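Researcher: We plan to redesign the surface later, but first we want a full-length starting point. Tokens attached.
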């Protein structure tokens, strides 16, 4: 079983919105920095967004800045990725990952990963 679990992926039309969720399967996420990555066929894995353990700091890739928002809810112990104005080029498998330290865009810095959830934006 993966240590993290993503949900919320699906098929949407361009311009629509979708929200992904990330939860821990074996532990709570409150002490972890969380990042969302995505990978499309033929493309390298891309860091999309990350959030600090206390939710006080966030970073976004230039390709999604202004359209996507990462947030976390301590009551639900869930990290969300809200994706607005979706484009066909956003189509990818989206994965969340956790690390003990500061935020990072580098996959090698993250310890635990989810299986990923497919987001498809039709043309």
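Model: Full-length starting sequence:
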């Amino acid at each position: 079983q993966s240590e993290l679990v993503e949900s919320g992926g699906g098929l949407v039309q361009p311009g629509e919105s979708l929200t992904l969720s990330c939860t821990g399967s074996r532990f709570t996420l409150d002490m972890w920095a969380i990042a969302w990555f995505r990978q499309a066929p033929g493309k390298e894995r891309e860091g999309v967004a990350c959030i600090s353990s206390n939710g006080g700091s966030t970073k976004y890739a230039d390709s999604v800045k202004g359209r996507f928002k990462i947030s976390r809810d301590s009551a639900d112990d869930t990290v969300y990725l809200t994706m607005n104005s979706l484009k066909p080029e956003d189509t990818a498998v989206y994965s969340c990952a956790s690390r003990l330290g500061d935020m990072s865009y580098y996959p090698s810095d993250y310890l635990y990963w989810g299986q990923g959830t497919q987001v498809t934006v039709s043309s």
